[in-house]
Amino acid sequence: MAQGSFGVPSYLGCCVILSFSQCFSVCPTPVCVTSENESCCSCEGGYAWPSTGCSDLISCPSTSLAPNQPCGYTRERPFLGPYCEPQNKDSCGMGEPTVMNMSVRLDTAFHDDLRNHSSQLYKKYKADLDKAFNAGYGCLPGFVSATTTGFRPGSVDVNYRVEAGSASFHQLEHSSRLVAQYLDEPYNIVPTSFTAEIMNRTNFTVSPAHIFEGDAIQLMCEVNATAENTTWYHGSQIILNSSRHSMKTDNNTATSQAVLTIINVTQEDSGTYTCIFTSRYLSMNLIYRGTEEIQVSPLRIISHSNNDKVSCNSPEIQANSPVLFCCIDGQLPLLTGDWKVNGAINITGVPSFSSNCTEYKLNVMDSLCLAEQSGTVTTYTCELQTGHGARSSWDIQITYFREAQVRISSSVNTSVSVGYGFSLKCESDVSNYDSIRWEIHSGDRIQAVECAACITTNKSTATSVLEVSTATQDWNGTYVCTFSQDSLNNSASVTINVIPLPLKQHIWIDPVEAPIVCGTPQDINCCISANTMEDYGVKIVVQEKEFPAAKKEQGNFLCYSYNYTETECRGKELEAYCKFVNSIGQEVNSERIQLNLIPDKDIISCSENKTFGREGDVLIKSCSVLNTTFLRGSKIYKCCSKSWKMEKNDCVSEQINNLLLMAESLVNSPSAKIGLPNFLQNLKNQIVLLQDDNSSANLAAIVTILYNISSIPVEAEKSTIIDYFTTVDVIVADSKKELWVDLNRERTPTSSLLLNAVERFSENLLPVNYSIPHVSTETLELQGMVVTEHNHADYNKDFRRLGNLTASVLIDKIETLPPNSTIVSVAYSALGHILPVNVGMYVNSLVISTVLSCERNQNFHINMTFQKENLSLKAPQCVFWDFNLNNSRGSWDNQSCTLTEEEDNVICSCNHLTPFSILMSPDKPAKNSVEDYITHIGLAISILSLVVCIVIESLVWKTVTNNTTSYMRHVCILNTATSLLIADVWFIVTASISEHSMQRRRDICVAATFFIHLFYLCGFFWMLSLGLILFYRLVFILHNTSKTCQKAVVFCLGYGCPFVFAVTTIAVTLPWDTYTRKDACWLNWEDSKAVLAFVIPALVIVAMNLFITAVVIIKILRPNIGDRTNKQEKKTLFQICKSLIILTPLLGLTWGFGLTTIIKNSHQAFHILFALLNALQGLFILVFGTLWDNKIKEALLKRNSLSRWSSQQTKSTSLILVTPMFSMSYPFSRTLNNLFGKTGKYTVSSSEPSSASTENTSKSDSLLN
Q1: Are residues 444 and 385 in the same domain?
Q2: Strand partners, 379
Q3: For the domain that residue 422 is a member of, what is the CATH number?
Q4: pTM (2 d.p.)
Q5: Could you tell me the pLDDT band of residue 36, with boundaries at 50, 70 and 90?
Q6: Of 217 and 64, more confident
Q7: Using CA atoms, how far apart are residues 421 and 214, in angstroms rounded to an integer?
Q8: What pLDDT, in 10s, does the model give residues 920-929?
Q9: Which residues have CB under 8 Å from 863's CB, separation 6+?
Q10: Is 473 within 8 Å of 500 (Cβ atoms)?
Q11: Last residue of a domain, one of 294, 329, 361
């Protein structure tokens, strides 16, 4: 039922053209309420608007919020359709509802309670708003609900959700305006703030579909609407333009398009990307949102060729070249690949490509792989690209090796004899190798050569030299030299046949030394082991004459003998030996046999066992022969009381002898390094069992064993070091001290050899796991370290395990040493007490030796701190043991060390490495003592006095040498002064050489010692000449010898004899380095007793001159004929005193006081007196030999041009007062001239003596003036 224009419902529709009944059955009409221009129509229950006009349905204005009121939609009049239809699935609003997120702003203040869903304010707001939203949007087609979802600050922003069918912007905008009508005014809704978010209207595309790191990607959003603004988000972060991001927007009337480009993407660019378009429809804001998830993956190469090694000159490799490949885990349409080559060996290849892989076939050629480049790595880089910028690469490393051409050469053809040396040189054309290995193949046995000392390798020239100094049967076989580079081995071989020949030490001789009677046969025997297939040619050689030897087998030995008879009966020593020659013509000689010829049979005293000898002759025989060997050493016999009696047995025991043989075999073995630990353990066990043995021969043999095996490099295992050190502990025990005294008298002191052995053993220790263990035994302590590349710590080791004594070693700047260098220090508590020292000196601390495995640099310094053992000893010296001193006997030296004394410790700073310690003495006088001052001041005065003396003598020479006696006297005085002057000058030179620089200035020291020795002896012999001339004139008064003859005698005596003494001394002692002392430039006493070459002549001359002086005094005291008056006795006493004063310095009698200084603990007064008298000898010679001479004074006065009267007065006075004391008018003179003559009183008849008397008087006078 329809109304009219006054609100009466009316039915409109198809009834205009159909019958009434058809109108209701076919064209159901809506119920409309009409107004002037439009109607508000709604469909009855069970009917709905058709979908074709759904978007045009605009709800009619309503003032009521009553529920269930049908929605009316505005229709223009005349209403021509569409009309309501029976409701079906295609009707308007019957499809799936759409959720629209919307928001609106309330112009009210925001309260925090709106954040709390349980607050009353929140609930009230939500209820009121939900009611208004449902009323406003309730007439949208397919409306389901409108719900508030939350509030945001910014005034109050209300988020709500509308669920309805598809609605047009016009419908939404109209419904939104209705909301404001249904909401109370206090909410102050802003009508223009309604915003609708339009979902599923944005077309979002991403290119490329598969994104990899490094790609450039493009994100594009399109919407069928005109957008005012576009915004991009990555997650919640707004994207802005940057170096990697660029945005572009294109808006036209129908569509809007936004493009985001990102270059060089990474995995951090993965995530959700959102594009938002914003626009307005009437009063409503519209938001178009598009979202896409982006996943950026790494471009992974999942399979590839492995790193490989290629022998580039291998024919097989060249025929089948390797193929390299790499692949990713998926197929990409635009995937491409490339290969790059980087390396010293530039071997390229041919690339190929498939959907997800690329291959590279190498073109290996011999010419591209040089020998010096063998072992170098070439890197092949496989690079895959996606076509969008992403790329991935993989490095495949190919190590190219060149098979080495190895050559081996020998110093011998194919054969060498036992005991002889040979060398093998192995060369390779590839220098970049890893290691070189030597092996000996003999039958089924393969033996590695493990002797680092016999293999010398030069890596730069790719050569290795195996040098065998003493071949044994262990060296027989085929030698294989192998150069290894990684897993590539290249070898060469050569066969060496070792032909048997006895070693010199394995030849037993008898005798070793024996007397031989001229014309009497003497058996000479040599024996070797019978364990040989070689038939030797054996000769007995005597004085280089060869004699055939008779061969005889004795048990396990082959003995060769010859009965030699000497026919030339002249006293001499003969030398004999046995010569063995093998099948290849190589020979070995036995030790020398010394035969001492006895020319006369009548003096034979001993004749046992056909061994003849005189009383006191020495016979030396070899030790006993055992089952398969013989004992080392010898037995010494002496002919005494007509029988040979054993004086000394130097034979080693059987146990030690076996150890000595084993050591010699081990040292000469190819596997010395491997066998040394077991040998050391066996040696220690045997020596400990024999520790109570007191044989010096056994002790010396043990030291020889330790020295021999110390040359073998061995790993620094703690047990190995302890075995070696324990053996040393046993032989340096206190119970062995007397044995060491005897052994140190040998040409090379055994203690020096032992020290050298321990030092060499420590130097040859090889680190284990880059470390040297800390090891200590009873008398030895060892510490060390390995220098690593990044080790900047100093070498600082403290030794505190050897009793109460401590020491420390500090070496700084060890970073300058090569990497993997080793530093090893050993402290000795007992060895210092058995090493020889100078008399009065004592080793007063531990001995420390430090060795380096490399050459030390120029700025090397080592600081050692020693604790004093005996605090009562004084004057410490920093010393080191120099193995080369004393003609390689070894001695303590103090070169290049500085000393700092700190209470109980002494610090030694040195710039070299050898065994160090400190020497101290109980009573060494201090430097700068009273004697030193007296000596130096006195020498200065003497030198000046001697110069003045020589000048005066030269000035008055012609005046005072007018007769033979006076001439000879002044010749003696002048030469004495000259000799002493030269000697004193050289003495001053030696005083400038300090103890610390003594060794460095050894040549100057030797020269100074020689000249001091020579010219002091010259001075003594000229004093002797002066005394002999005096004695000659006293005894042989009437005998007259020519001046020429006397000059020849005194010059031979004054210079010839000293020259013989000096030259003989230096010739005998200098080759043995025992000419000078170690601490002063003077003749040696401790080692060679060279100082006796000065002391004995000097004391003999002093004794002779003392005798001459005594003769003079006796003759002065001899009475004249008749009784003496008191006046004469006083005059005689005066003459005696005057003679003593003159003769004592002139004849060198002051040197006799030197006897008092050599007495032990003599009083210092004697030392001072001796220094004073002899230092001032030059002054005494000037005063008593020159200035006291009346003739010299007279001659000097004449040279000063005095007046004639003065000269006459002087001459007249001289006749009375200054007449020479030996003139004929003086009693003493008369006594001398009548020596050994008649006694009695002589009367002088005239004041002018006869000519003969004058001559004799003048001679005597000239001697003592």
Answers
A1: no
A2: 342, 397
A3: 2.60.40.10
A4: 0.58
A5: low
A6: 217
A7: 71
A8: 555 444 444 5
A9: 809, 810, 811, 907, 908, 909
A10: yes
A11: 294
